[in-house]
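FAQ
Q: What does a multi-component entry look like?
A: The components come first, one per line:
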Amino acid sequence: MHHIYCPYCEEAREEEEYSYTGEAHIERPKDPAAITDEAWGDYLFFRSNPRGIHHEMWYHASGCRRYFNVTRNTQSYEIHETYKMGKLPTITAKTIAADTLVAQQGDAS
Amino acid sequence: MTSLSTNVSAGDMMESPLHHHADHTNASAGGIVMAEDKFRGHLNLRGNPEDNAFTSAVESVLGVALPLKANTSARNGDSVVYWLCPNEWLLIVASGTQGQVEGDLRLAMGDQHIAITDVSSGQTLVNLSGSGLAQLLQKSTVYDCHASNFPAGKVVQTTFAKTGTTMCKLEDGSMDLVIRRSFSDYFFLWLQDASEEYGLRVA
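Then the predicted structure of the entire assembly, as tokens:
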């Protein structure tokens, strides 16, 4: 089974202890009354569904009962990093693309 | 009509979560020994660990420093403090003293932003020991309970037969588990089944 590192328990724990709770870094509109119904609907219901790098929230249900963020590849299920709530990811689709480019250039030269 | 409860004290009326299994025995060998530590006071404490006033107030009442490191515990005689998450702890104190401890904590902390909840009636403390303990844990929990990963004093919240538990390894190698009252019967039935080949004794 999968082992996921909990940034609060500071340990890798069995996947059974966790539950997935959806996309991360979704900001609630500051003034919901001022935005259009469409923008509000997008905020409430529409989520990105990328193939590849996805930033998402996980909940350590059987452990410390804390939410944290996970950067996961939806294609390979590889977990690149986990980080605390309120922090930003250090690995994104952009940084991975840049790393791949550097690696390819290294191979070419 | 005479009241039935006139000569019965509150203590006699209390039933621990596992009381109906107290006389269970199917083994003289006792490869697994289960002992329920009944009626202990369980207090859930929340506060800001970065606030010195909070940590020192807790220390002054409990006589032991709050464990601030993840998955650790602190013991003072019969009382024990488990780390649950960065701002949450479980205090297990002697039976009947939880009200006193809660009052003392509130007094010491004044108007700090904290929470203390008496959860004694919702859970119970169970100690598991015996020669079959390692194998029993292997089939009951997803966590690696080997001594190299789980030294004495460590506290882990994980699943035990799919129900939530808080485990703490003791110096003598036995394991203390905090289980929910509502899951205690399920827990015991699982234990009975899982320890069949080692022999279960209820101490």
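Q: Is there any commentary attached?
A: Sometimes. For this entry: The interface with chain A takes residues 70-71, 84-86, 88, 142-143, 157-159, 162, 164 of chain B (CB under 8 Å).
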